[in-house]
Amino acid sequence: MENIKDLEGLTNEVCHIAVNAGQYLKEERKSFHRESVMEKHAHDYVSYVDKESERRIVEALSGLLPDAGFITEEGSAGYDDESYCWVVDPLDGTTNYIHDNAPYCVSIALRTKTELLIGVVYDPCRNECFYAWKGGGAYVDGLKMSVSDVCKAEDAFVVAELPYNSRQYAKTGEYIIDQLYGKVSGIRMTGSAALAICYVAAGRFDIWAEAFIGKWDYAAATLMVLEAGGRVTDFYGNDHFLDGHHIIASNGHLHFLFQDLIAKVPPLDM
């Protein structure tokens, strides 16, 4: 496959695909019933909406780059060592969605084996489209994003997500909350990794971390943080995080905040 020459143009097309999928999610929510939900793992859910959204996205993306592979949350398409690979979460924030809560979103990334090229995240709840392409900056609805300039822990607005893997993460999560509660500006849990990371890129949050997550959860949004001037690593501080499952995304100044805490009480079996 030849090199992609117009990343900006391709990003715009992916934005349209993400928005269409997001509008499907929003419309389908009006008649959605919990009875249609299945449990993949403990407290990790999937429904026909996830699967149909993924089917639509894969079909549309296949028309853009017919030779690209796929890494998708629901496994409707595969990756066979292709040069380019789409990374798709058709509904990030499924638990929020089935309980009629916000936020939830569509997340689509394009990557090679070593780098991210495109990231698009669409939030149907607020009708916001976040997007970035390598070397082109990061944007939300046409406005360029940049991470915050907050440097002090006491001013930090942080996201401390608690993953489904409670056995491995409980002590880590408890320690993070114990050490930060009352000492930072605020602590939140969003239920959508992709959107929380986008908010770091937009300067709405200062730092985010989560473990035991899939590539589809973070691929698109982490490119936005990098393009917006922030930092993304795994829990050990490695910049090569693309194939990992534990991620810290920050404005750069506050990266130490989670990295130091996690180093003291790391998750089990990480």
Can you describe this structure?
With 270 residues, the chain is of the alpha+beta class. It has two domains: 7-144, Fructose-1,6-Bisphosphatase, subunit A, domain 1 (Fructose-1,6-Bisphosphatase, Chain A, domain 1), CATH 3.30.540.10; 153-264, D-Maltodextrin-Binding Protein, domain 2. It has seven helices and 14 strands. It has helices at 7-29, 48-64, 94-98, 166-180, 193-201, 215-227, 255-264, and strands at residues 37-41, 44-47, 69-72, 85-92, 105-111, 116-123, 128-133, 138-140, 143-144, 157-160, 186-188, 207-211, 231-234, 246-250. The strands form three sheets. The chain has a seven-stranded mixed sheet, sandwiched between helices. It has a five-stranded mixed sheet with strand order 11-10-12-14-13, with helices on both faces. A hairpin with a 2-residue loop joins strand 1 and strand 2 (44-47). Helix 5 packs parallel to helix 6 (215-227).
Main sheet attributes: strand count, strand direction, barrel closure: 7 strands, mixed
CATH topology of the largest domain: Fructose-1,6-Bisphosphatase, Chain A, domain 1
The helix-strand sequence is HEEHEEHEEEEEEHEHEHEEH
With helices defined by DSSP (H or I, 4 residues minimum), what is the helix count?
Answer: 7
Number of strands: 14
Q: From the alpha carbons, calculate the radius of gyration and give it in angstroms.
A: 18 Å
Oligomeric state of shown chains: single chain
